[in-house]
Specification:
Blueprint lengths: L1 E5 L4 H13 L4 E6 L11 H4 L4 E5 L5 H11 L3 E4 L6 H6 L2 H21 L3 E7 L26 H20 L3 E6 L2 E2 L8 H10 L4 E4 L5 E3 L1 E2 H14 L5 E4 L4 E3 H12 L6 E4 L14 H7 L7 H14 L1 H8 L3 H9 L3
Parallel strand pairs: 1-2, 1-4, 2-3, 4-5, 5-6, 6-11, 7-10, 8-13
Antiparallel strand pairs: 9-12
Helix pairs in contact: 1-8, 3-5, 5-6, 7-9
Nicotinamide-adenine-dinucleotide binds next to helix 1, helix 5 and strand 5.
């Protein structure tokens, strides 16, 4: 079995590659990644020398390059993680989000049709459902919830989902889609809430909380997401969407306070800053379908996962210090200096 994993030098893709290499020692894994600012080859160091792993630097929008790689590797399965993923960046500059997340996904699906792959899996997000109000805790996103996006990022991800369903219906391309809630864990780029707050705490820098910090996200440890995708590849049904989430809703401010407490830093570092434009209030996944049909349930409790994640960032300072001391400083200045 050969699996092409796109975006495997990023946060979830890299965790997924390690998960696959461990769970399926007889599978060959090929990682295709453009290495944007969010891709990091050092994250894949533990796989690079393995005979059952290959890394190829390639843009998913490069049609000729993608077709050539697919014809050479003849994968049975393609899992698409490659994307521009940061909501704040999409608000500043939407163009690349449309290009990679919609056009690039379309190129991959065309190459899958060309080759007749057994499965194309699109890694999507709960953000395609928009948001839920804070005062209706009984509401959750199901697979039937209409798509109602808020940001250029989520709109581009919804575009790819619609394209995938169209390729299933029109061409019979065997697609599956997973829509997962917020992930956390090792190797997450420090522009995202949890690693940003850990890095800033460790540098005794202000902790920029948007608005009042009351927005709610539904957090899932990355390994639980990887296991869900692996199950969908093996037991999921083509043409189906699976929501992935663990009923673990937290307010942003409470997460930041937990990080301060675990690192022994004062809450006086918390700084309330101008809110994100169009900021989604609450995400909450109903995972009943993947539980009932595939037997998936999250295994990592939030307290344990957050503790493990903080420990990982303490033990891998070199990895994230190199990022935050480079081009990231310009990004940070642009996004936060006058917020
Ligand atoms: P990330 O930003 O950490 O990594 C993205 C990876 O994609 C990087 O390695 C980057 O180099 C690569 N990439 C970007 N553009 C590319 C292109 N044109 N061609 C090839 N490679 C390209 O992202 P992540 O947080 O690991 O998210 C992975 C996927 O999971 C995304 O599709 C995202 O929408 C989805 N998702 C993320 C979360 C989350 O909480 N992080 C939750 C649900 C779904
Ligand atoms: O729900 C899944 C999505 O989760 C994925 O599809 C996205 O790729 C991923 O980036 C994530 O989106 P969010 O916008 O929820 O994640 P982010 O880490 O950017 O922000 C989480 C919450 O924290 C959000 O309410 C905004 C807030 N926040 C974020 C940052 C970076 C702050 O208050 N301060 C910050 O500095």
């Amino acid at each position: 079995m050969t699996v092409i994993v796109t975006g495997g030098a990023g946060f979830i893709g890299a965790n997924f590659i390690y998960y696959l290499l461990n769970a399926h020692p007889d599978w060959r894994v090929v990682c295709l990644d453009k290495l944007t600012y969010a891709g990091n080859l050092s994250t894949l160091r533990g796989a690079m020398d393995r005979p059952d792993f290959r890394f190829v630097r390639l843009d998913i929008c490069d049609r000729a390059g993608v077709y050539a790689l697919f014809r050479e590797e003849k994968p049975e399965i393609v899992v698409n993680f490659a994307a521009e993923t940061h909501v704040d960046r999409s608000i500043e500059d939407p163009g690349i989000f449309l290009q990679t997340n919609v056009v690039g996904a379309g190129v991959l699906m065309d190459a899958c049709r060309d080759l007749g792959v057994e499965r194309f899996h699109q890694v999507s997000t709960d953000e395609v459902y928009g948001d839920l109000p804070l005062d209706r805790p009984e509401l959750f996103f199901t697979e039937e919830t209409p798509l109602r996006t808020s940001s250029p990022y989520s709109s581009s991800k919804a575009g790819a989902d619609l394209l995938a369903m169209a390729y299933w219906r029109t061409y019979g391309l065997p697609v599956t889609i997973s829509r997962c809630s917020n992930n956390y864990g090792p190797w997450q780029f420090p522009e995202k809430l949890i690693p940003l707050m850990i890095a800033n705490c460790l540098h005794d820098k202000p902790l920029p909380v948007y608005g009042k910090g009351e927005n709610v996200r539904d957090w899932l440890y990355v390994e639980d997401h990887c296991r869900a995708i692996d199950l969908i590849l093996q037991k999921g049904t083509a043409g189906e969407v699976y929501n992935v989430g663990g009923h673990n809703e937290m307010r942003n401010i409470d997460i930041v306070k937990l990080i301060c407490a675990e690192l022994g830093k004062p809450e006086s570092l918390i700084t309330f800053v101008t809110d994100r434009k169009g900021h989604d209030k609450r995400y909450a996944i109903d995972p009943a379908k993947i539980h009932a049909e595939l037997g998936w349930l999250p295994e990592t409790k939030f307290a344990d996962g957050l503790h493990a994640t903080i420990r990982w960032y303490l033990e891998h300072r070199g990895w994230w210090e190199e990022i935050v001391s480079g081009e990231y400083r310009n990004y940070y200045e642009k996004m936060y200096a006058h917020r």
